[in-house]
Amino acid sequence: MIGLGIIWPLIPVYAVELGAGGVLVGLIIASFNVSRTLVNPLAGQLSDRWGRKRFMVVGLFVYAGVSVLYVLPAHAETLVLVRAFHGLASVLVVPIAMALAADIAPPQKLGLYMGTLNMAVMLGLGIGPVLGGTIRDHLGMNAAFYAMGILALFTCLLVIIFIPSDKQRQGAGEDQKPYSIRKMLSHRVVLGIFLMRFLTASGQGAVYTFLPILALQLKLTSSQVGIILGANIFLIAFLQRACGALADRVNPKYLIILGTLASGMTVFGMPFVEGFLMILLLNILMGMANGISLPGGLVITGKLGRTMGMASLMSVTDTAWSLGMIVSPILSGIILDVFGLSYIFVIGSLLISTGGIVVAFFLRDYQS
């Protein structure tokens, strides 16, 4: 995840350097999540039949290859295909790793295990952009892509050495008969989690994309924007284990509802405050709210995945997030052109809050 984070904020800059206009930059960014959305459910189904380790090894190896592809294009249009391949590789790693963690977690510690792994995901995404900017400033853009590849190869080596083969690992997914996607989504609880993930991604994606523009209007510096986003992401990361353990002891749906509604409220306030400290405070509160809500959804998914197919269900809920991240920039662009910047945060807040209401409705009878 550090490798992914290294290049995440550099992609738009790199695309513009290769001559991309606004529409093409949007396509380049979106192609990552488009390929994830298309491939994710199939990858999960196959992993439940064929195991976990081989998928992660292949995915990390493709990651390393993609790092070389990034530096080859002479034209920005080629980056659409490179990003699509990168998205394909990513669905073979994180959702499958989440499924593996849920496979091996004792039932009474599922939240702790999932929270710990999600903490690693968020820390990687938080550290990566800082490292990526430093590498680009001192060694150039290409070095950032090579760094991602080196980290992927190193991680691939660790997976090969430390993770047992699926035949050795007791309870591997090879004997599991995963539910079809239609059957999973016909389950009331799964549908509720799917819709919540889609709505919150649609709202939060707008916030993370346009917060730097809002900060520019408030005359904040780039370093202040970095502090704001860093505080948000790192708070999510550091709350994962504690809130995961809490989700093992209480009904996790309450953590989802509380965290999601609180997140929506903080986003609503962002366009109506002034100054660095107030924006920082709201992002601290948003990070805390998201840190509370995330482990609850992973616990519910992990428990249902033991009968539905762990990787299949993890991939379906991850697809909901990818869909939201596709919708988010398109919807936000329309809102910006028609209503103005402030309404991106207002409507984003409503989308996030609706996710909490959806969980309260669809999971009203859920007992952990």
Residue-averaged pLDDT, rounded? Answer: 89
Q: Which geometry do the CA atoms define? A: globular
| Count of the separate structural domains | 1
CATH class: Mainly Alpha
- Strand count, sense and closure of the main sheet? none
Oligomeric state of the chains?
single chain
- Amino- and carboxy-terminal Cα gap: 30 Å
Radius of gyration: 20 Å
Written as H for each helix and E for each strand, in order along the chain, the element string is HHHHHHHHHHHHHHH
CATH homologous superfamily?
Answer: MFS general substrate transporter like domains
Unreliable stretches: none
Instruction: Give helix % range.
Output: over 70%
Question: How many helical stretches?
Answer: 15
Indicate the structural class.
mainly alpha
> Remind me, CATH topology?
Growth Hormone, Chain: A
Can you count the beta strands?
Answer: 0
Strand content: under 5%
Second CATH tier, the architecture: Up-down Bundle
